[in-house]
Amino acid sequence: MLKDYYAILEIPQDANLAEIKSQYQKLLLIHHPDKQQQNQSLQQAPSAGPALIPLQDIKEAWECLRQPAQRAFYDSSLKAMKLRANGQVNDDIDLDDMEYNEDNGTYTSPCRCSGEYVVSEDELELGVDTVSCSTCSLIVRIHYEVADEEDDDRIGN
Ligand SMILES: [Zn+2]
C-alpha cells in the first residue's frame, strides 16, 4: 500500500516544486519532535491540536516528490492504487502469465484492446501491483509472490 504523499504534505497533486518545498519546510517545523513535546506539555489533552504526522513520512514524501522522474512514477502508482480502491480494476492476471522482456526488464500482457499492460521489475519491487493499459482505461491487478522474509509468518516457522 502506497502512502499518499500529497495527503501527508496537504498539497494538491498538481502542486509545483516551490509549493511542495515551502509546505515541506512548514510541516517540518510543526511536526518536529521537539515541537511536538512542547505542544504536548502545553496542552494536556492529547486529542487536541492537529494529528501528528511522523517526521519520517514528511521527509519520505519530500524526497520522492522533489525528483521529477520519481514523482512521475509515484503519480502513476498512486493513480493505479486509487483506481483499485475505487473498484475500477477490470481483471486479475498472474505474473507467471505475463511475457518477460529481458531487454528492459519488463513484463507485458496484451489487453483486449490492441494495447498492453506493462510493468517493470523496479515497479514490482516497489510493490506496484496494478497497471493501466497503455491505450485504453482498463486496469489489471497483477498477482505475484514476493520472495522475502515477510513471508515467514505465513509459513509458520
Ligand atoms: Zn486496453
UniProtKB/TrEMBL annotation:
It holds the Pfam family DnaJ. Keywords: Iron, Metal-binding, Zinc. One of its GO terms (molecular function) is ATPase activator activity. CDD domains: DnaJ. InterPro entries: DnaJ_domain (IPR001623), DPH_MB_dom (IPR007872), DPH_MB_sf (IPR036671), J_dom_sf (IPR036869). Signal peptide: none annotated. Residues 89-145 form the DPH-type MB domain. Residues 4-78 form the J domain. SUPFAM superfamilies: Chaperone J-domain, CSL zinc finger. It comes from the Eukaryota. Belongs to the DPH4 family. PANTHER family: DNAJ HOMOLOG SUBFAMILY C MEMBER 24 (PTHR45255:SF1). Required for the first step of diphthamide biosynthesis, the transfer of 3-amino-3-carboxypropyl from S-adenosyl-L-methionine to a histidine residue. Diphthamide is a post-translational modification of histidine which occurs in elongation factor 2. This is Diphthamide biosynthesis protein 4.
